[in-house]
Amino acid sequence: MALAKKEKYNVAIVGATGAVGQVFLDILAERDFPINELRLLASKRSAGKKIKFKDTEYTVEELTHDSFKGIDIALFSAGGGRSKEFAPSAVKAGAVVIDNSSAFRMDKDVPLVVPEVNPEDAFKHNGIIANPNCTTIIMVVALKPLHDYGKIKRVIVSSYQSASGAGAKAMQELMDQAKAWSNGEPLKIEAFQHQILFNVIPHIDVFMDNGYTREEMKMYNETKKIMGDDSIEVTATCVRVPVLTAHSEAVTVETEKKITPDKARELFEQAPGIQVLDNPEKNEYPMPLFVSGKDDCYVGRIREDITKENSLNFWVVGDQLRKGAALNAIQIAELLISK
Amino acid sequence: MALAKKEKYNVAIVGATGAVGQVFLDILAERDFPINELRLLASKRSAGKKIKFKDTEYTVEELTHDSFKGIDIALFSAGGGRSKEFAPSAVKAGAVVIDNSSAFRMDKDVPLVVPEVNPEDAFKHNGIIANPNCTTIIMVVALKPLHDYGKIKRVIVSSYQSASGAGAKAMQELMDQAKAWSNGEPLKIEAFQHQILFNVIPHIDVFMDNGYTREEMKMYNETKKIMGDDSIEVTATCVRVPVLTAHSEAVTVETEKKITPDKARELFEQAPGIQVLDNPEKNEYPMPLFVSGKDDCYVGRIREDITKENSLNFWVVGDQLRKGAALNAIQIAELLISK
Fold first, then answer.
1. Is the predicted pLDDT of residue B19 greater than 90, yes or no?
2. Which of A200, B54, B244, B293 has the most CB within a 10 Å radius?
């Protein structure tokens, strides 16, 4: 269901003081989203904080069940618990919720949408639309054109996920550890299970009974739902690396129909939301340091898998706060107001 | 051919002032290798430097074609160019060369040896034995028991390689970048193609025509040779990460015979050179920060690949200066003097 046509919309941001919250504001401003009233919501602890949007200063309000009167679009990014508790109140108040948490993603009644992949699903909502997991979004943007051309059977993916994927505090912790290390001071470890500076941690979200982490199982389950094809299999290893922003992924894709590297390059180049950066002779390939702050997902290292027929390797990097979170949610909102 | 039995051996280290050179000395001392004369060799630029071994100070000598008189074992780690130029002189002088560079690895007449995998090959040398690529060594130590049990058909691996894999200067560059960043100073980029602090670089060694890097093709070619089985296929993505020491690898292994996670754990536990660290409920899994300085390769995240029959995922971390280089070379030397 599209939103009732208006010139401008009342927008609430839940989790306005978090890592994704700030990027919501940046992107709403950049894209000049038609906002009438902007309501910034957060926990009691953050209420009263001042945040600037365009040229106006807004005061963060405490999130309550009564926060959503008159709101058309509520962008949630305050963790699954808050989404579960407050999204129904927003829906009851008449808002469409676009939720960045994992709370509703696998609910049958909730569409899980990446606008470059399954835009049509956005209109099938019952008040809530789920924004997929960041690592999954970045991957499926790249998988979509390959699937349309050659039908994907299996994906093997290893991720290199940045600290800010775990929130603003986690990113700060990496920076603090770098400074403490440089000054010969002891390193504080709070946001992650272990020191992240000069380390990699093969553990994101909790462990499941099958030995995968929940993050890895999100890539498995969400890819099937977003792509609308239960036959696509995804085995993932998700790893935290000492990078501030942007997630990288090494992907092997097995397809029914052969996709040569040249064909893949052509498919990527024609697909929305993708930039091909694949000039090894100039040392040009996607890297998190240079993709941070960019809207598109960057693909490179495209090569035929020499170990299997109809298998392709590539490397994709996306800003997980933008395309992996805030931008994708706002693109969904744009879809809803476009019809 | 084993070395002629002696009580103690004359040992030369070529590249004594490099990252691996220092670890050669550490490990020779730790393992109390039976050394009569120790000769430290390096480029003219480093000649004259003093290096302590056990309680004696040694003066680094300039590497020349006449450097090897009376030497029994020459440990080379000074780059492929120097190995190609000087290893034949060492052989001519009667030494057995154990070469850490890629210069001779794929030569038919040169055995490529990981003592836990193919110790018998060490004795088939004609004066030169090659030490495999660091990332490959760490992987094949873990692959060997799986292959013996279930016959490996295909390996898909993504690496997380530390800065010191590119040498002592590269590791220093990462530390210098951390300090410069902490002090708000500009970062110097010399050792790598791009900034490595807070970044990952999907590019190690040069690019080949097929789109893989030479590092990735080393994993393909060297695995076949070390395992003595040309049918094992390896597709790799090799990535530099901002870690000081120890390489990590996310590995998917497809086998002819099913290997359950429990069976794999049992096989790993019984295999030489491997420690299993796989207690997700305690947040215990191998990480470079904790494997640095260790001799064994650490395996964890062992789980059934839910996307394919007879496929297994695991994570392996090894200190690439030790098992991936100096330790492996010295283990080869120990083999040669053991018979």
1. no
2. A200
Looking at the predicted structure, is the pLDDT value of residue A1 above 80?
Answer: no
By Cβ distance, the residue of A158, A198, A203 closest to B250 is: A158
State how far the alpha carbon of B225 is from the alpha carbons of B133, B221, B222, in Å. Answer: 12, 7, 5
Number of H helices, E strands in chain B: 8, 14
Is there a contact between B199 and A285 if contact means CB atoms under 8 Å apart? no
Q: How many CB atoms lie within 10 A of CB A295?
A: 17
Whether B182 is covered by a domain: the verdict is: no
- For A205-219, the pLDDT digits (tens) are 999 999 999 999 999
Judge if A265 and A314 occupy the same domain.
Answer: yes
Q: Which of B156, B181, B250 sits opposite A239 (nearest CB)?
A: B250
> Which residues in chain A have Cβ-Cβ distances shorter than 8 Å to B221?
none
Contacts of A183 in chain B (CB under 8 A): 182
Structural domain of A35: 9-131+325-338
Are the beta carbons of B200 and A244 separated by less than 8 Å?
A: no
Residue A142 and residue A220 share a domain: yes
Residue A176 belongs to some domain of the structure: no
Best of B164, B176, B198, B299 to mutate (most A CBs within 10 Å, chain A)? B198
pLDDT in tens, B159-206: 999 999 999 899 999 999 999 999 999 999 999 999 999 999 999 999
| Helical segments of chain A, H only | 19-30, 80-92, 134-150, 168-182, 214-227, 261-270, 288-291, 327-338
Q: Residue B248: inside a domain, yes or no?
A: yes
Q: What does the pLDDT look like over A135-148, one tens digit per residue?
A: 999 999 999 999 99
**Same domain, yes or no, for B101 and B151?**
no
Q: Could you tell me what percentage of chain A is helix, strand and coil, using 3-state DSSP and rounding each to the nearest 5? A: 35, 25, 40
Q: Are residues A40 and A151 in the same domain?
A: no
Look at B239 and A233 and tell me if their CB atoms are within 8 Å: no
Residues B220 and B307 in one domain: yes
Of A201, A237, A306, the CB nearest to B250: A237
Check which CATH number belongs to the domain holding B15 and give it.
3.40.50.720
Q: Do B211 and A239 touch (CB under 8 A)?
A: no
> Residue B101: which residues within 8 A CB-CB, separation 6 or more?
B76, B77, B78, B79, B80, B82, B83
With CA atoms as reference, the chain A residue closest to B312 would be: A235
Residues of A marked active site are found at: 134, 247
The predicted-structure confidence for A87-122, as pLDDT tens digits, reads as follows 999 999 999 999 999 999 999 999 999 999 999 999
End-to-end CA distance of chain B: 9
Residue among B154, B164, B92 at smallest CA distance from B128: B92
pLDDT in tens, B20-73: 999 999 999 999 999 999 999 999 999 999 999 999 999 999 999 999 999 999
Q: Do B303 and A194 touch (CB under 8 A)?
A: no
Looking at the structure, do residues A155 and A76 belong to the same domain, yes or no?
Answer: no
Model ipTM value = 0.96
* pTM beyond cutoff 0.95: yes
Element (H, E) at B173: helix B168-182
Q: Answer whether residue B186 is part of any domain.
A: no
- On whether the CB atoms of residues A105 and A215 are closer than 8 A, the answer is no
How many domains is chain A built from? 2
Tell me: do B146 and B214 sit in the same domain: yes
